[in-house]
Write a structure and sequence with these properties.
By secondary structure, this protein is α+β, with helices and mostly antiparallel strands. The chain folds into two domains: 247 residues, no CATH class; 106 residues, no CATH class. The chain is 43% helix and 16% strand. Strand 2 and strand 3 form a beta hairpin. Helix 13 packs across helix 14. The longest helix is centred in the C-terminal third of the chain and has 32 residues.
Length: 461
């Protein structure tokens, strides 16, 4: 995975900042405490009371590459910090942090501290993406995002040069801000982040331990959750109200007011909750109908699609990394074989990450990073080589005609993929057309006998 070189002016490469997972907090990690205390990479310190001059021996802490290790009462080990910063030796989180990078971090924690990811329960976790929008994120965040599930933003303010909105719920927070303006970037960088503070929120996905973050299917489900939360936001494109009828104008003015939804949203403890909920739903349906009639959610649709594509891009990893992950999973499951549940969970992860090298039928290139049903290089595979192997991408780029060479990358990716498919389909289609032409010609005999078996095979007739 290509990573930009560090620079004194980190703003130059903030636009490359992408991550799926960042901060985690884990309480009561199952690990040998004495082994941790003796680890030469960690220097544990006890808290010092400036008033009494005494040290608190019940809690010792050590920090390594932004991960804080805490030993409480010489019984419990707690871990918290940024996995993203850890991957950069604790210095920053301003570069790409992908599934491939996440694998490296978890393996490194195991090798340096003997931390078995199955014994690291996750109590808090943050997951997010940055996307480049065609519009100004600052204006979009400030004026277009109204509420989330009837709840107005708990934080709604300028942050640096950008803008921040945060929505607070009992089990999770939503944080939305303009990443480009925050770091004076020319690009429109929109950041969408979910911070989970109660893991029951993710119980349907089954993310409970650090090991679950090695399961590609669970991360795919986490991405779907991110998109789902974004689509739950009430977002509306601004419009000249002169086109509305008097009733529509009233619905619109109410709908873009977050306080309207907060006042209308019922409390589950209300005696007439069902009646109030029905009223809330009726008003929301009216507003949704207005949005649909005038197509007032184009921006939301655009960003939703961008989030989906970005998350899928971050999950791409090559056959070499797949092999490294499988080897690691086999290694630690064998060492912990006395724990039956660990073996079962591990076998499932290994099954999902089995090394199967698949080659494109046209280019002969490895397409193991694509869907298992893929036969040809697709857009996701082309993006992978663009990021990871510039030499191969340069060869793929030669497939572009002059018509497409100055277009944006998304169009170029599409046309390269189209060229590869055509290389496979054109011979078959041309042969099929020739055969059909011959068979349509008037003849006293069956023209099929004049067609070779090789041509029939090419045409698949």
């Amino acid at each position: 995975m290509f990573k930009p070189k560090p620079t004194a002016n980190r703003r130059n490469w903030t636009q490359r900042y992408e991550k799926m997972i960042d901060f985690i907090k884990s309480l009561d990690v199952k690990i040998d405490i004495q082994e941790l205390l003796n680890n030469p990479l960690l220097e544990f310190e006890s808290k010092f009371n400036v008033n009494t001059g005494e040290t608190n021996e019940t809690r010792k802490t050590a920090k390594y590459q932004d991960i804080t290790f805490e030993i409480a009462n010489n019984k419990y080990v707690n871990i918290k910090g940024s996995l993203h910063k850890y991957s950069n030796k604790g210095k920053h989180n301003y570069n790409d942090f992908t599934f491939s990078s996440l694998i490296d971090v978890i393996i490194d924690l195991y090798q340096k501290f003997n931390i078995n990811p199955h014994f690291v329960p996750i109590n808090n976790i943050e997951f997010a993406v940055n996307v480049n929008t065609s519009f100004n994120p600052k204006t979009f965040i400030k004026k277009n995002i109204i509420s989330h599930k009837g709840t107005p933003a708990s934080i709604d303010t300028f942050k640096g040069n950008g803008y921040l909105k945060e929505f607070e719920h009992s089990q999770y927070y939503i944080k939305i801000y303009d990443k480009g303006l925050q770091f004076s970037q020319p690009d429109n960088i929109f950041r969408f982040e979910v911070k989970v503070v109660k893991m029951e929120y993710l119980q349907n996905i089954g993310i409970k331990t650090l090991a679950d973050l090695l399961n590609i299917e669970k991360l795919q489900s986490l991405g779907k959750k991110l998109i789902s939360v974004f689509n739950e936001l009430l977002i509306i494109d601004k419009i000249d109200t002169a086109i509305f009828t008097a009733k529509e104008k009233e619905i619109y003015q109410n709908g873009i007011n977050p306080m309207f939804w907060e006042r209308l949203k019922p409390n589950s403890k209300d005696l007439d909750y069902i009646k109030l909920r029905s009223k809330y739903n009726r008003e929301r349906d009216k507003f949704n109908s207005l949005i649909k009639k005038y197509n007032l959610n184009k921006s939301q649709k655009e960003v939703s699609e961008l989030i989906k594509n970005k998350w899928n891009d971050l999950l791409i990893f090559d056959a070499k990394k797949r092999y490294k992950l499988t080897t690691f999973l086999n290694e630690y499951s064998n060492q912990r074989s006395e724990h039956k549940t660990v073996q079962n969970d591990t076998s499932n992860i290994v099954l999902n990450c089995t090394v199967v090298k698949r080659l494109c039928l046209v280019t002969g290139l490895d397409i193991s990073m694509q869907k298992t049903t893929s036969k040809f290089m697709s857009i996701s595979g082309i993006k992978f080589y663009k990021k990871n192997d510039p030499k191969i991408y340069k060869e793929l780029e030669k497939r572009l005609s002059d018509k497409w060479k100055n277009k944006n990358l998304e169009i170029q990716f599409r046309e390269i993929a189209h060229s590869i498919r055509n290389k496979n389909n054109n011979p078959r289609n041309n042969t099929k057309r020739s055969i059909n032409k011959l068979l349509s010609m008037p003849s006293l005999f069956n023209n099929m006998i004049y067609i070779s078996k090789e041509k029939l095979k090419i045409a698949e007739m």
